[in-house]
Design a protein that fits this description.
By secondary structure, the protein is α/β, with parallel strands linked by helices. It has helices spanning 12-23, 38-48, 58-67, 78-86, 104-112, 123-134, and strands at residues 2-7, 27-34, 52-55, 74-77, 93-96, 116-119.
């Protein structure tokens, strides 16, 4: 079973990535990150049962944690939380659907942790292509 992290699960690319993963055998979601749409993240968590989740928006993370208070899902906050999910030990593949500069550091963290990185945007390569290719 290939374990996947999805960075940016509540955006259009993230939602479509989950549809693709849902139809594939041999892949399981072990972590996800989202911006502020905690309600959609909650539905995704209930469907895919990731172990680790991070929300960029700290208030959204608090609301999500409250909604999942009886769950075993660990909820992290902010950029540091997203970076932790990107590099989590269990993951083999990181699908990066975070737009703009916000995805650069988590992408570098995933590469530094030895993950296979599937980029769904070009911004990280435009901003730091040499560093990303070296990693």
């Amino acid at each position: 079973m290939k374990r996947v992290v999805l960075l940016g699960s509540t955006g259009s690319i993230g939602v479509n990535t989950l549809k693709v993963l849902n139809g594939l055998k041999g892949y399981a979601l072990c972590g996800l990150t989202a911006g502020s749409n905690w309600r959609l993240a909650l539905r995704q968590i209930k469907k895919y049962s990731p172990k680790l989740v991070a929300m960029a928006d700290e208030q959204a993370a608090d609301k999500l944690a409250h909604a999942l208070r009886s769950s075993r899902v660990k909820i992290l906050k902010g950029e540091e939380g997203i970076r932790a999910v990107a590099a989590m030990d269990e993951a083999e593949i990181v699908v990066s659907a975070i737009l703009g500069a916000a995805g650069l550091r988590p992408n570098l963290d995933a590469l530094a942790a030895g993950k296979r990185l599937a980029l769904a945007n070009k911004e990280s390569l435009v901003m730091a292509g040499e560093a990303m290719m070296a990693a």
